Amino acid sequence: MRIVVSNKAGIPIYQQIEDQIKTAILAGDLVEGTLLPSIRQLAKDLQISVITTTRAYHDLEEQGFVNNVQGKGSYVLGQDSALVQEHALREIEAHLSDALAAAQLAKIPVHDLHTMLDTLIAAESGDDGDR
Question: Is 13-76 a domain of CATH 1.10.10.10?
């Protein structure tokens, strides 16, 4: 597993670590039972504070992605479809809220937002809109 962090990303480093590990788990790159690097080893590899990696692993445990076993390490938990779907829904909702806030600032009508979303869906599905 390769984790890359940036001080210039505008996202806290612990969050960058969490996001990359969650993505790897949800994509199936990290399967159930996989032992993650130790907190100290990851901190050393990334040249960051142990406190930062501890926060990332703690948050991942709270969210149900890993199990931190004292003295043994952090292991990837199995992801049932309900947990994966709930996580995806929360993430989508957050992005839609951000988009809505940006649209309100720019005074873009709700109808135009619906049109944008329909256009994006059509582009993803390969539908050119001609029905």
Answer: yes
